[in-house]
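User: Hey, my collaborator sent me this sequence without any context and asked if I could get a structure. I don't really work with proteins. Can you help?
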Amino acid sequence: MRTVVFDLDGTLADTSGDLVAAANACFRAMGEGDMLDPARDAGTALRGGRAMLTLGLERLGRADDLAEIDRNYPLLLEAYAGAIDVHTTLYPGAMAAVEGLRDAGYGVAICTNKPEGLARLLMGRLGVLDAFHALTGADTLAVRKPDPEHLRETVRRAGGDPARSLLVGDTATDRDTARAAGVPSVLVTFGPNGASVSELDPEATIAHYDELAGVVTRLIG
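Assistant: No problem. I've predicted the 3D structure and written it out in structure-token form, which is a compact way to encode the shape of the chain:
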């Protein structure tokens, strides 16, 4: 079965607001103010918790304090889980595109570097978890993106053939994962990092999910 695999953060949903809020909770617990701005730092937020903690500590002049990052990372995840869907929204047309692919006979799945439990919690809260045939996260396997086995195993769990798949994402990590797996990548241009994704030379880009069905047909039939 042909399978379309989606990244989550910055691809299916804008999760940056809730991620920034969780990081700022950590900085307040350190006795500092809110170190991150939801608008200015959205791109960093979509790179994950450690990236946000690193950026905030850099602004405090503590860029090399790896121990503080390690200590606060579990606290960030706890804060995030407690308020995971306050600001998060699905991108326009995302779920219509997913349902259209399903109706056309494609497998659809999520391959994210967010911990699996948090990804399932979020998609459940948004009411769309059951729309996907499979979901794997950063801790599902012994490897994670950009290791191609993360993508391949996601496809297998969706009942598909890894050689007949593509990855929809928003970062160099997604492009590198697809390239390592020998399959196409489609990068979205509507997220915080959208202005620069064409420089990553993916097989295609889309500015709205209305474009996805045609691109998928062109790339994997």
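In plain terms: Residues 66-82 form the longest helix (17 residues). You can pass these tokens on to your collaborator as they are.
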